[in-house]
Amino acid sequence: MFGPDQKKLLVASFEEVWTTVRDKHYDPTLGGLDWQKVYEEFKPRIDAAESMGAGRVIMNEMLGRLKQTHIGVIPFSTYRDLSEGGASGAYTPGIDVRILEGKAIVNCVEPNSPASAAGVKPGWEILKVNGREAAQGIKRVEDLYSKSTQKDLMGYRVILNAINGTPSQAAEVEFHDGKEVKAIKLDRVEPRGSKIKYGEMPPSYFWVETNSREDGIRVIKFNIWLNPEAVSNAFSEIMANADKAKGFIIDLRGNPGGLGAMAMGAAGWFTSQRGLKLGTMAMRGNTLNFVVFPRPNATSAPLAILVDGCSASTSEIFAGGMQYLKRARIFGTRTAGAALPSTFTRLPNGDGFQYIVANYISIGGKPLEGLGVEPDETVKLTQQGLLAGKDEVMDRAVEWIKSGKVGK
After folding, report:
1. Which of 52, 81, 193, 344 has its CA 20 to 30 A from that of 213?
2. CB-based burial of residue 3 (10 Å sphere; 0-12 exposed, 13-18 middle, 19+ buried)?
3. By the 8 A CB rule, do 267 and 305 touch?
C-alpha cells in the first residue's frame, strides 16, 4: 500500500534530490538550465505520484534535463546490493571477480587465502552467495546501467559486496568450476596490504607490487591511487636502471582511482618533455590542471597500460592522458567512464542517489565521463582463458613490447 507515510518519504526524497543538484553540482548555472522552473514543473507530478516506482521515474526524468550521465536515483534493491558490503565490512575470502558475458567469474585468488586453501581457481563462475543468485544481482545492474559505461563496474561491486563482509560470518559461495557445481564455505580475513586513511575518506586497504620479468619487461600494479609515498617508492624501485628495461607495463585493471594528483607524478616517469598536461578538472569555484612533472631520469622505453571496465577515475585520467600524448599503448577493454568525482547518498525513501561534483576534460578536449578510455587494442579476459591459467591482456601487452613496434 502506498499510504500517506510513503508519500511523505517520496516528497522528501524529491526535495533532497533537487536541492542537492542546486547546491552541489559543479556548475552552479547547470548549463543555463532554470532549475527553479524545473522544480515547479515536476513537484506537482511528485505530489500526484501513486507509487515509489512512479516517483522514481519522475525524479530520473527531472535529472535527465541535465543531459549528463551517472546522475540518477537508484532503486532500493539495487542500491542495497551496491552499498551493503561497505556497511558489513571489507574482510574477504581472498577472491576477486569480473563480470564476463553476464557471469560473475573469479579472475584472481590471493595466495594463502581461505579461497586458495579451499581450492578455488580463476575461471570459476560464482552462482550464489549466501543463498542469493549472482545472476539476479547482475541482471538488475545491467538493466539499470544498460546504456552506461559503468555497467561492468557496478556489477562487479554487487558481487564483491556480497562476498566480502565481517570476519564473524563466513561467505557461503556456490561455484561452477567448469565441470560441476561446488558449494564452499569461505572464511573472511583482513584484506591484503596496509590499512590507510586519507583525509575524510573511509579507510582503505592499499597494496602495490612490482615484477622485473626475465624477459626485461617490468610490471607495476597497485589497487588504488592512494598512499602517494608507497606508489612513488614502487616506481623508484622499478625505474632503477630503466635504460636496461625492454619496456614497462602498468596494470590498472580493477583500480577505481583515488587521488587525481598522483597521476601527474606517475606520468613524469615516462616523459622528459615539459609543459604537458593530462587534462583539466573544473569544480565549483576552482580549477585543477593535471600538469605532468617530468623526472630527470624519465624513460623513453615502450609503455603499455592495462585497463578494464573496473578502471575508473584517476586510472582513466592517467591512461587517457598518456594515450593522447602518444606515450603509452592501452590494452584491455573500455574503462568505466567514471572520471568525474561523484558520490552516493541514501534518500529518505531508501533509494540511492548518485550525483557529480566536478567535471574532467581530457587534454584532447573531450570528457571521459560516460565515454571512458577506449583501448588501442581491445583484448578481453575469457572464462576459458582463466581456467587455462592465461591472462590474455597481459600476454598481448608483452607481445607488443617484444615486437619492437612502438606506436603501431
Report:
1. 193
2. exposed
3. no
Q: Collect all residues with Cβ–Cβ distance below 8 Å to 132 and sequence separation of at least 6.
A: 162
Beta-bridge partner residues of 280: 289, 361
For cell 537508484, name the residue.
74
C-alpha distances in Å from residue 219, one per residue of 68, 206, 315, 319: 36, 17, 16, 15
Q: How many domains does the chain have?
A: 3
Strands (E), 162-234: 171-176, 181-186, 194-196, 204-206, 208-212, 217-222
Residue 76 phi/psi, 5° resolution?
-55, -45
Nearest to 194 by CA among 235, 230, 157: 230
Taking the model in full, what pTM does it have?
A: 0.83
Residue whose C-alpha cell reads 587525481 in the numeric block = 260
Whether 101 contacts 164, CB under 8 Å: no
In a domain? residue 353:
no
Other beta carbons within 10 Å of 369: 25
Question: How many residues in total does the chain contain?
Answer: 408
Q: Report yes or no on 85 lying in a domain.
A: yes
Rounded CA separation 212/301 (Å): 14
- pLDDT in tens for each of the 408 residues of the chain? 689 999 999 999 999 999 999 999 999 999 899 999 999 999 999 999 999 999 999 999 999 999 886 688 988 766 655 554 443 458 999 999 999 999 999 999 999 999 999 999 999 999 999 999 999 999 988 888 888 888 999 899 899 989 998 888 899 999 999 999 999 999 999 999 998 876 645 578 999 999 999 999 999 999 999 999 999 999 999 999 999 999 999 999 999 998 888 999 999 999 999 999 999 988 888 888 999 999 988 999 999 999 999 999 999 999 999 999 999 999 999 999 987 777 788 999 999 898 888 888 888 888 888 889 999 999 999 999 999 999 999 999 999 999 987 654
**Residue written as grid cell 575524510:** 200
User: Which residues constitute the domain of residue 111?
Assistant: 77-186
What CATH number is associated with residue 133? 2.30.42.10
Residue 249's Cβ-side half-sphere holds a number of Cα atoms within 13 Å equal to: 27
Amino acid making up residue 174: E
